[in-house]
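The protein record passed on below.

***
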Amino acid sequence: ESSFDAWIKYYRPDEDSINSQQSYYSGGALLALCMDAKLRNEGYSLDLLMQQIWSRYHSNPMPEDAIAHELLQLTGRPWNEFLTRYVEHANEPPMEEAFELLGMWLSWRLSKSPQDLSGPVVGKNSPPVGWHHLGLELSAQNVVQKITQGSSAFTAGINVGDELIALNNYRINTSLTELQHLLHPGQELKLLIARDACIQNKIMLIQPLALDTACLLSHASAHAEQLAHKQQWLASL
């Protein structure tokens, strides 16, 4: 669906893009990974599928049902249910199932910063709560640049363009380091903001913090076939 609006929206992001758009590049890559895992579990691979498609269509138009047809030719079974669910209906790809087939476990943890995209947990302590955990991205002047739909800040009625001034009567800076004692799920906080040159008070209820960062771990109970699939998959990257 996002491809229809790519040239008018995806390449011209705005403050609401994080809530209304999804990259079909990353989405397609994740779905390809899931398909590769399922194919390897059946003794094939995405590489074989792509080679088969290239040999048949490299100089000819590719019909819309070509992927389904080539998957049937390669594996001897229909893939219509998989393609309908994850391509036509754009459901979330079955990442946990895919990595399990490859002898790995997809785990989730709390991010340490907006730039923390992946990796194992270091240390036992939870990272300090940051503005991104509350659904906000701020400028150096504490003006809201982006806000995540459904977050603590969104539910409190904070808008893009608001300037954050104080939290529970503490002057706000770009870090929440000194205010960690206030940031517990279920806690109600008083936010003082400036909007359109007017001072407003908002009440923000701290919601349970979402585990938003993925990391891959070796599955302790993975059997030999899964480990072989993982080694073949890694070797193909």
